[in-house]
Amino acid sequence: MTYSFLRRIGLSLVLAALLEYVGCSAGTNTGNGTTEGPFNTGGAPGTGGAPGSCPYWPCIYPVNVTGPDGTTYRGRIYPDVTIASYSYAQSFPNPPVAELSFGGSEVDLSGASCQVVGSGMGQFDQVQIFISTADSSIDASGTLHVHSAPRNDIYAAGPGNIYEPPIPGWAVDLTVTADGQLTATLSLTSADLSDAGATMQALNISGRIEPGCGASMPVSGGRTFSFPCWQHKGCGD
């Protein structure tokens, strides 16, 4: 998955540049950020950090992932529709046409505060969700719905690191509203459901995805879902 590895390296560089641009202090790790723009976490403004600085980046980004053990990760989800142009991807049954990639860090949340716990190396700090046309639809409100069974190839959805795909994959139950609000549950059954010892793990994801300006994907029924576009604001706007 060389393309995936390179994309994540590029993502890290973009994040670093963004922090420098908005004047965030990498030493600040408390606070929920602002209540506007891409840093809106749905909570009260943060109180941590030196004057003129932003909270550490996982705290100000709007997407939460809750692991099976209740651990919370906060970060961002990016829509990517370039996968539809990969001939290798299209050679698979039910080929993916889009990918939503979460990148974040482990955090502790308490009231209006947020503290970074991990260094970005936790089990769920990277989550990939691959979407296929046959698994997706749009309702009358313009909301995208995705229901997909687990895959067992390199385009399997689920947590993983940048070198290995999540095999076996996780089932996906996901919605994205027309303005970019995402809710999703990714589930993995550890054994056959007929087995009395079968257990299920679940990842719960919620928050606003990053803008996909100009990005769209075909869904079942011949329709098209366009990822929303908006203008980023600087820290404190």
Structure overview:
This protein has 237 residues and is mainly beta. It has a domain at 62-226. Helices cover 12% and strands 33% of the residues. It contains three helices and 13 strands. It has helices at residues 2-22, 57-60, 87-90; strands at 63-66, 72-80, 96-110, 113-116, 126-132, 136-138, 144-148, 158-159, 171-176, 181-189, 200-208, 216-218, 224-226. The strands form two sheets. Strands 1, 2, 3, 4, 5, 6, 7, 8, 9, 10 and 11 form an eleven-stranded antiparallel sheet that branches. The chain has a two-stranded antiparallel sheet with strand order 12-13. The protein is globular and about 45 Å long. The chain starts with a helix and ends in an 11-residue tail after the last strand.
DSSP summary: helix tally = 3
The helicity comes to 10-25%
- Give the H and E element order: HHEEHEEEEEEEEEEE
Q: Tell me the major beta sheet.
A: 11 strands, antiparallel
Structural class: mainly beta
The N- and C-terminal alpha carbons lie at a distance of 38 Å
Compile the SSE list and pairings.
Blueprint (H helix, E strand, L loop, with lengths): L1 H21 L34 H4 L2 E4 L5 E9 L6 H4 L5 E15 L2 E4 L9 E7 L3 E3 L5 E5 L9 E2 L11 E6 L4 E9 L10 E9 L7 E3 L5 E3 L11
Antiparallel strand pairs: 1-2, 1-11, 2-3, 3-4, 3-5, 5-8, 6-7, 7-9, 9-10, 10-11, 12-13
In short:
The chain has 237 residues and is mainly beta. 12% of the residues lie in helices and 33% in strands. The chain has a domain at 62-226.
